């Protein structure tokens, strides 16, 4: 059975403004799916409709066989425990430490008084340390979140999401505010973790080259409709034109690769210049 099934999912703001139009998709366990498309195509709306941060106008969101669109508030809160979201703007509590931000991923599982006093059980704390080690931030556990770089903040967001012990990851533009080198590191981390845990993920991503390198499947949206659904190697110039419109895609790809090389070369030069 698919972990997530969308059936005729539609989100309509007005008679003339339809953000999603009859989107139907199946997401399998362990499958990392990249959503690409121009701004306003419906990528973020689709992700937010899955966990009902945005209420769809019609259609079904079947998560492990349960239609989330029909759940009341209490049942929805319980289902959301297993659907973790990683945000573009990190959504960290800046004044709290890295460890406290990661532990906030357990809020759906602890009594209110524990969450209010930030008193977590020993096994939750041990798991949080293990997650910080996995994302390479163990030495930053006691730092305030606002003292971190953008890439480090995104790693905290990943660790916090994993603290929920999710069965589905929803990731909204995780690399939009990052430099090319850090963006690749974050995407590689997400891909590796999903493979390790057979964790399905839907990633809204603007960078087509990153998507082609790090996801298992690409879905192209245009004006709220699916216009491409296939493997990264199937995303050729014709498909890109269907998604984005006419462009010299070979030149665009060459330019992006050159930007990446320019970002990495100073780092490599510095390493080569270091004494043995």
Descriptive notes:
The structure is a single chain. The model is unreliable at 263-276 (pLDDT under 50). The protein has helices at residues 43-50, 73-80, 98-103, 112-117, 122-134, 150-163, 180-197, 208-214, 237-244, 249-273; strands at residues 4-14, 17-27, 32-36, 58-63, 66-67, 83-86, 168-172, 201-204, 217-222, 225-230. The chain folds into two domains: 1-82 and 166-234, P-loop containing nucleotide triphosphate hydrolases (Rossmann fold); 95-165, no CATH class. It is globular and about 50 Å long. The chain is of the alpha/beta class and 276 residues long.
Brief digest:
The protein is of the alpha/beta class.
Topology, please?
Elements: E1 4-14, E2 17-27, E3 32-36, H1 43-50, E4 58-63, E5 66-67, H2 73-80, E6 83-86, H3 98-103, H4 112-117, H5 122-134, H6 150-163, E7 168-172, H7 180-197, E8 201-204, H8 208-214, E9 217-222, E10 225-230, H9 237-244, H10 249-273
Parallel strand pairs: 3-8, 3-9, 6-7, 7-8
Antiparallel strand pairs: 1-2, 1-4, 4-5, 9-10
Protein name: Phosphonate ABC transporter ATP-binding protein
Keywords: ATP-binding, Cell membrane, Membrane, Nucleotide-binding, Translocase, Transport
Subcellular location: Cell inner membrane
């Amino acid at each position: 059975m698919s972990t997530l099934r969308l059936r005729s999912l539609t989100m309509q703001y007005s008679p003339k403004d339809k953000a999603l139009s009859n989107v139907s998709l199946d997401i399998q366990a362990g499958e990392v799916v990249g959503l690409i498309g121009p701004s306003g195509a419906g990528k973020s709306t689709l992700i937010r409709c899955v966990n009902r941060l945005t209420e769809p106008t019609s259609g079904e969101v079947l998560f492990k066989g349960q239609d989330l669109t029909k759940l009341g508030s209490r049942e929805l809160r319980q289902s959301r425990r297993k659907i973790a979201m990683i945000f573009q703007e990190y959504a960290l509590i800046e004044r709290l430490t890295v460890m406290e931000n990661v532990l906030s991923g357990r809020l759906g599982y602890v009594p209110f008084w524990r969450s209010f006093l930030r008193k977590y059980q020993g096994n939750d704390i041990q798991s949080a340390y293990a997650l910080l080690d996995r994302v390479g931030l163990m030495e930053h556990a006691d730092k305030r979140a606002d003292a971190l770089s953008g890439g480090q903040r995104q790693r905290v967001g990943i660790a916090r999401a994993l603290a929920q012990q999710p069965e589905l990851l929803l990731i909204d533009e995780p690399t939009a505010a990052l430099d090319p080198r850090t963006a690749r590191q974050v995407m590689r981390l997400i891909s590796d973790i999903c493979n390790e845990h057979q964790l399905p993920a839907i990633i809204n991503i603007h960078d087509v080259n990153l998507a082609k390198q790090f996801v298992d499947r690409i879905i192209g949206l245009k004006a709220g409709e699916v216009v491409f659904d296939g493997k990264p190697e199937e995303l050729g110039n014709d498909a890109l034109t269907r998604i984005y419109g006419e462009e010299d895609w070979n030149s665009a790809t060459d330019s992006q690769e050159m930007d990446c090389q320019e970002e990495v070369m100073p780092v490599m030069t510095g390493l080569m210049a270091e004494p043995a």
